[in-house]
Write a structure and sequence with these properties.
By secondary structure, the chain is mostly helical. The chain is built from six helices and three strands, in the order ααβααββαα.
């Protein structure tokens, strides 16, 4: 019996989340972090950002993102500085400890990337196309489903 699309979408989303976490959680845990905390540090590794951006990237509410960042600050992974022109904005940047944690995490990811060398090129291309299509479709559904 084929599963209806209304049940398949959340089931596939949950399965991908669980399998991704199963793969990445041990790398984050080696740094004493959760996968979500590492996601925040990875984003800040690319560029400083306000808490509002972290909220968007993680899909968390602003208050929860702020709380998560406060814990990361207390652990020494990032700094939080209020904006000079707008004191309501809290800007985040990585400390040396935060950068080190991300670099070690990325070395772990590099081991997985090396394993992909054994995957046939057609499968890698199909995976890349599938991930891109899924992202575009989910963005489309989100943008067009707001307010309903």
């Amino acid at each position: 019996m084929d599963c209806p699309i209304q049940l398949k979408i959340p089931a596939v989303a949950q399965m991908l989340k669980a399998k991704t976490d199963r793969l990445l959680a041990p790398l984050a845990q080696a740094e004493g972090l959760t996968s979500l905390q590492m996601c925040v540090l990875l984003h800040l590794y690319q560029a400083e950002a306000p808490v509002g951006t972290v909220s968007q990237v993680t899909g968390m509410g602003q208050a929860n993102a702020s709380s998560l960042c406060k814990k990361l600050e207390e652990a020494g992974y990032l700094t939080r500085v209020r904006g000079e022109s707008d004191r309501r904005v809290v800007n985040l940047s990585l400390t040396e400890a935060g950068r080190g944690a991300v670099e070690r995490f990325r070395r772990g990811i590099d081991r997985y990337v090396a394993l992909l060398e054994d995957v046939p090129p057609g499968q890698k291309d199909a995976l890349a196309r599938g991930v891109q299509a899924a992202e575009e479709i989910l963005d489309f559904l989100y943008e067009h489903g707001k307010g309903e």
